[in-house]
Amino acid sequence: MKAKEFDEKFDEGEDLTAYLDLSSVRRPVQECKRVNVDFPVWIVNQLDKESKRLGVPRQSLIKLWVAEHLKKAA
Predict the structure, then answer these.
(1) Angle at 32 between CA 65 and CA 60, to 5 degrees
(2) Which are the contacts of 9, defined by CB distance < 8 A and separation ≥ 6?
(3) Please, is 61 exposed, middle or buried when counting C-beta atoms within 10 Å of its C-beta (0-12, 13-18, 19+)?
(4) Number of C-alpha atoms within 13 angstroms, CB side, residue 45?
(5) What span, in angstroms and rounded, lies between the C-alpha atoms of 49 and 60?
(6) How crowded is residue 7: how many other Cβ atoms within 10 Å of its Cβ?
């Protein structure tokens, strides 16, 4: 498919995923790197309580809070 045709389909709102090779797609800013952090038991307990209240996993809550803090600090 030529770029012009692709652009026209995009402009018309057509789903283009069938035309893309997604096998090697990367999101460089979103790549993950595992880190280990040790928290005191009382913090883990509070995290678990808050994550249960919100209905999200502890790890998701930690990532969200860290991201929010970093955005404020920027």
Answers:
(1) 30
(2) 16, 19
(3) middle
(4) 3
(5) 13
(6) 10
CA dist., res. 24 & res. 28, Å (int): 12
Does 74 score more than 90 pLDDT? Answer: no
Q: What is the distance, to the nearest Å, from the Cα of residue 6 to the centroid of all Cα atoms in its chain?
A: 28
Please give the model's pTM, rounded to 2 decimal places: 0.61
pLDDT digits (tens, 9 = 90+) for 24-43: 888 888 888 899 999 999 99
Q: Class of 3-73 per CATH?
A: mainly alpha
Q: Are 15 and 21 in contact (CB under 8 A)?
A: no
